[in-house]
Design a protein that fits this description.
189 residues, mainly beta, five-stranded antiparallel β-sheet, 5% helix
């Protein structure tokens, strides 16, 4: 068997008795490749944000670029028992939103994330019309001062003009807890 190199040449390759190609490879995690080569990975940091744990939306992300936005994992810390749930395709106006500028994880890049990112105590409160999405993940934090890294099963893919929102719940009656979260957004690939 010969593997061509794209210039008309090539190299013979060994195939073992199980009909498997023997080769040496260099493997690179997909997210690392996007960070290093495409300069398309960004951090979103929510730092010590008071959130409404009576079903309050505290983070809104809309993909405004042509490439699919992907999210694989997050680090989340809370100061009291609560649920954090994740929804896709919520739409509408937000209440008392603060803009977050995602930071490129490649320090030498000048790329900016093609996304609208906003945070707040409860973006869906008051005159806001944010609604209509579907829950895709829920994480239950049973203890105060809980801190963990969470993986999104199968990753999350958000096409252009679609949204990803994070909500706090599990406690009725207007309770407030604090959330710190780091989320990595990747575009491209």
């Amino acid at each position: 068997m010969k593997i061509e190199d794209g210039t008309g040449g090539g190299t013979s390759a060994m195939v073992d008795s199980n009909n498997m190609l023997r080769c040496r490879t260099v493997m690179n995690e997909f997210e690392c490749w996007i960070t290093s080569m495409l300069e398309g990975a960004y951090s979103v940091v929510v730092n010590h944000l008071d959130v409404d744990v009576d079903d309050g939306c505290f983070l809104y992300i809309k993909n405004t670029g042509n490439d699919t936005l992907r999210v694989g994992r997050a680090r989340i810390a809370v100061d009291g028992p609560m649920d954090i749930y994740v929804r896709v395709d919520d739409d509408g106006t937000r209440n008392d939103a603060n803009t977050i500028t995602p930071v490129n994880r490649n320090a030498g890049s000048g790329n900016e994330a093609p996304a609208t990112v906003e945070s707040g105590f409860n973006l869906a409160a008051g005159a806001a019309t944010l609604s209509g999405g579907s829950e895709i993940e829920r994480f239950v934090f049973w203890d105060a001062d809980d801190n963990r890294e969470v993986d999104f099963v199968g990753k999350i893919a958000i096409p252009k003009n679609h949204t990803l929102t994070f909500w706090a719940g599990g406690t009725a009656g207007g309770s407030t807890n604090e959330v710190t979260m780091t989320l990595v957004l990747t575009f491209g690939g």
